């Protein structure tokens, strides 16, 4: 009998679908005072292969979230799914994974929750209006204080959008990647530096300086609201945005603690509105003329993680 069990387990492991390593522990996050219901999905479950396929698809498309991203609300908040072999938790919620959520709900043992609660959860999933709330923080965003940049003529004329985005006045009209090139001995002085003005080149040059690309979903998954901002890597980092006019120029925006974006166009003063005098709530939607949005990045010049010159 023991031999039969061992062979059965071995066969199951051989024929597991790609991306899966065994059982899944599922938690339906729905209660407030009571512990949430939890159960296990085995590879023998009729829905197992579909769940694995859809879960992998959601991960690839970055439609899964961290447990701390679950919405702070009463009632249905999503599913926590853990691969018991990998020990990794994923939050499954939102309009883009409705079929997966419905599959997960069907695997829940009957009688686990009251019928009225089951009906409510089913309806919430079908509507797809419950979405993740990316962890936010007040810590990693500088205050909007244009006077410190606009009130000093030397600082105003000798610092550009890259200086301002990094919140660091070097008085050198800083260029992405120039400090890195000098440190690596690629150039002898600042005047020899020549930055290619395309999306990839400017982004990669900034990465060489120590900035990091950050994925920020569109609203409502990635809203920018007062005193809140998307998660960034640990440290004293704040969020910036890169846009490029291919072959001509680049520009940077900075997210401030008031939830709005500000910027310093070249030698001009620091402002917090776009080309049609509208507040910038998301650089992807701002009026920026011929410039094209490239990506969001995080920077930490004050923590010595970024070096610009």
Please describe the topology of this protein.
Blueprint: H1 2-14, E1 24-29, E2 38-41, H2 48-60, E3 78-83, E4 88-92, H3 98-106, H4 115-127, H5 147-150, H6 153-158, H7 161-165, H8 178-183, H9 199-209, E5 212-214, E6 238-245, E7 249-255, E8 261-262, E9 292-299
Antiparallel strand pairs: 1-2, 1-3, 3-4, 5-9, 6-7, 6-9, 7-8
Overall 3D form: elongated
Number of strands: 9
Structural category is alpha+beta
Percentage of residues in helical conformation: 25-40%
Largest sheet, strands/sense/barrel: 5 strands, antiparallel
Please compute the radius of gyration using only Cα atoms. Answer: 25 Å
How does this model look, in words?
With 309 residues, this protein is α+β, with helices and mostly antiparallel strands. It has helices at residues 2-14, 48-60, 98-106, 115-127, 147-150, 153-158, 161-165, 178-183, 199-209; strands at 24-29, 38-41, 78-83, 88-92, 212-214, 238-245, 249-255, 261-262, 292-299. It has nine helices and nine strands. It folds into two domains: 17-127, no CATH class; 147-303, no CATH class. The strands form two sheets. The chain has a five-stranded antiparallel β-sheet. It has a four-stranded antiparallel β-sheet with strand order 2-1-3-4, with helices on one face. Helix 3 runs antiparallel to helix 4. Mean pLDDT is 86; it is low at 1-20 and 225-229.
Q: Quick recap of the structure?
A:
The chain is α+β, with helices and mostly antiparallel strands and 309 residues long.
Features:
4-stranded antiparallel beta sheet; 9 helices; 309 residues
């Amino acid at each position: 009998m023991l031999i039969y069990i061992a062979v059965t387990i071995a066969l199951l492991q051989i024929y597991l679908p790609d991306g899966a390593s065994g059982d899944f522990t599922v938690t339906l996050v729905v209660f407030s005072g009571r512990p949430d219901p939890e159960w296990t999905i085995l590879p023998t479950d009729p829905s197992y292969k579909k769940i694995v396929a859809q879960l992998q698809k959601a991960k690839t498309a970055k439609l899964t979230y961290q447990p701390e991203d679950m919405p702070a609300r009463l009632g249905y908040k999503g599913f926590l799914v853990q691969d018991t072999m990998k020990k990794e938790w994923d939050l499954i919620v939102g309009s883009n994974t409705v079929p997966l959520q419905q599959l997960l709900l069907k695997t829940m043992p009957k009688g686990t929750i009251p019928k009225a609660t089951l009906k409510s959860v089913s309806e919430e999933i079908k509507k797809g209006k419950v979405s993740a709330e990316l962890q936010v923080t007040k810590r990693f965003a500088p205050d909007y204080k244009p006077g410190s940049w606009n009130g000093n003529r030397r600082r105003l004329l000798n610092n550009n959008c890259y200086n301002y985005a990094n919140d660091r006045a070097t008085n050198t009209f800083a260029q992405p990647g120039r400090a890195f090139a000098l440190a690596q001995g690629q150039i002898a002085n600042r005047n020899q530096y020549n930055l290619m003005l395309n999306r990839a080149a400017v982004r990669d040059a900034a990465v060489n300086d120590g900035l990091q690309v950050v994925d920020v979903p569109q609203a409502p998954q990635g809203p920018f609201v007062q005193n809140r901002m998307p998660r960034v890597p640990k440290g004293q980092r704040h969020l910036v945005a890169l846009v490029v006019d291919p072959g001509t120029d680049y520009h940077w925006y900075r997210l401030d603690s008031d939830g709005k974006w500000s910027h310093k166009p070249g030698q001009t003063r620091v402002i917090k509105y776009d080309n049609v005098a509208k507040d910038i709530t998301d650089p992807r939607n701002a009026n920026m003329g011929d410039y094209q949005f490239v990506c969001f990045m995080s920077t930490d010049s004050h923590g010595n993680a970024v070096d610009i010159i």
